[in-house]
Amino acid sequence: MKTSIIKYLFLVPFLFIRIPIFAQTKIDVEKEFHDAALQYEGILRTHPDIAKFPQSYSHDGKIMDRSADWWCSGFFGGSLWYLFDYNRETKWRNEAYKWTMAVESEKNNTTTHDLGFMLYCPFGNGYRITHDPAFKSVMLTGAASLASRFNYDYGVIKSWDEWKGYDYPVIIDNMMNLEFLLWAAKASGNKKFYNISVSHADKTMKNHFRKDYSSYHVVCYGKDNKVLKQGTHQGYADGSAWSRGQGWGLYGYTVMYRETGDKKYLKQAEHIAQYILNHANLPEDKIPYWDFNDPAIPNTERDVSAGAVISSALFELSQYSNKHSKEYKDAATTMLSSLTSPKYKAEIGTNGNFLLKNSVGSKPHQSEVDVPLVYADYYYLEALLRYDKLMKIGKLDLN
């Protein structure tokens, strides 16, 4: 188990690291949040209707919004809480509260596995900062809704209701929703939430990962708890490594170690990190291509959202890993430094006022390809906060 200081450090988006070889100066976090505030003021001006959640901005200049039941609906409110967490300006708290409450109705949604994204990102951050009991109540109801999708025979939480003729598909993304259930276990005293999380993580570890610790995107279960299909929905091929999926796994198992202290999760996270960081197709700036195995590399898209998720996860993992701590801090800082560069960060007033460019939603479906995405911004801000906190407590070596 971690010491109380280390454990609680990572219940918030605090984290740690040093600057990469090609970035000799430290990241100016104050400037990044200043720019982020200017951009998000623009989003707020163009989104007066809180029933339309900012999602992306298309190449032809169209704003792309989604409804509250879309899996990304919680990220905007979560990002607003991150802005308030940094600058403590009342206007950001007010906007964060408004956009958080806009997804309250999803607490009763039992048709999706994504309630961690939808509820824990806004309500979880809001509760962490304000301790508003209303936020806690919403989350406990939402956690029960998420837990209703757990099948005790299969030992995993069902993702979609159907995929390619299979009626029990589970995607690697689901690892990201376990933090929500683990919080609910502590907040409610109901260990059912904890047991579900552990079962899901263990079965995913067994059936989603290959010998090299790359991950399938989708695993389908069937009668007698058999694995019927291991494939992909958003990656290049069934046997390829969809980059954001690798990030989801890395982040998810890092959280599992934080919350349980079980070293098998630490080892799993380290194995995933080593796969990512040692891959021959990872570029020097460490922002991955949308799929590590796309044969068109280097003439294919990067996925900035994957880079943001991986950077944030590595900041945390570096504090738990003895053998690879410096390697993870260096890599995470390189990724974050890259994201702050003009190559990936939008100029003020452009990009639909989203912070980052060049994310990929689902290339096989030609959906949200090489555009900004709201969750890329969320994990970017989280990584910045983690970097900043680590700098302030002297956990980053910039030599």
Automatic annotation (TrEMBL):
Write out the GO MF terms: hydrolase activity
The record's SUPFAM superfamilies line, in alphabetical order, gives: Six-hairpin glycosidases
Record's keyword annotation contains Hydrolase: yes
Q: Which UniProt keywords apply?
A: Hydrolase
User: What InterPro entries does the entry give?
Assistant: 6-hairpin_glycosidase_sf, 6hp_glycosidase-like_sf, UG_Glycosaminoglycan_Hydrolase
The keyword Hydrolase appears for this protein: yes
Domain of life, source organism: Bacteria
Family the UniProt entry places it in: Belongs to the glycosyl hydrolase 88 family.
This protein is called what?
Glycosyl hydrolase family 88
